[in-house]
Design a protein that fits this description.
This is VanZ family protein. The chain is mainly α. It contains 8 helices and 2 strands; from the N terminus they run H-H-H-E-H-H-E-H-H-H. Helix 2 packs antiparallel against helix 4. It is globular.
Length: about 200
């Protein structure tokens, strides 16, 4: 139920954002394809499912429950030693989990078709996730997860580049081609998606 509420909130907020961006693109004579909008919703769906189902992102409801039980909200369990227990199956799952992130960024935005910009965004999102684990009982903030998430982002980016060479025309339709006038909006658009997913997951 929480996941459904979170997605409904995210869907509404993303639709509002898309309406605003669509008007902005029209003003600059920049036509955005339906394929781009389709992958936008795929991206927010991935983020919400990742935060609510996979990560166990903290929520207002959980914090209220902990408060009623007189239990602390802040639950630090930190590992800063890489692979001290070896490589676990969860490490491989983290790579798979972050591959859609590395794939969808360059699918949607041209600036992320450079590895370093995608890598930076993947590290940032992973850091946000690991910090959030400090506020979830029985979860760990683990440097192994940060490393594996980063590898997953790179793998997703590589998969995109292979597929974009095969489906070159389709890849050009999914990407937003920003005009110089709306470059600032496009630059911060991926951050807005992450913020919306976090807000939706917390309130859901």
């Amino acid at each position: 139920m929480r996941e459904l509420i979170s997605f409904i909130i995210a869907f509404i907020l993303i639709t509002i954002l898309n309406i605003f961006l669509r008007k902005s693109n029209k003003n600059f004579g920049n036509k955005v394809s339906w394929q781009h909008y389709f992958f936008r919703y795929m991206f927010i769906l991935y983020l919400v499912v990742a935060l609510t189902q996979v990560i166990g992102f903290p929520s207002l409801e959980k914090w209220q429950r902990l408060s009623r039980l007189n239990r602390p909200i802040f639950n630090p369990n930190i590992n800063l030693v890489p692979f001290k227990d070896g490589i676990q199956i969860s490490s491989i799952l983290n790579i798979i989990f972050f591959m859609p992130f590395g794939f969808l960024l360059p699918t949607l935005w041209k600036r992320y078709r450079t590895l370093w910009t995608t890598l930076y965004q993947g590290i940032l999102f992973s850091i946000i996730i690991e910090i959030s684990q400090l506020f979830v009982p029985y979860r760990a903030t683990d440097v192994d997860d940060l490393i594996m998430n980063t590898i997953g982002t790179i793998c997703g980016w590589i998969v995109f580049n292979i597929m974009s060479k095969v489906f070159h025309k389709f890849a050009n339709k999914t990407v937003n081609q920003p005009f110089s006038s709306d470059r600032i909006v496009t630059k911060f658009e991926p951050y807005l998606y992450i913020v919306i997913a976090i807000i939706s997951s917390f309130l859901g």
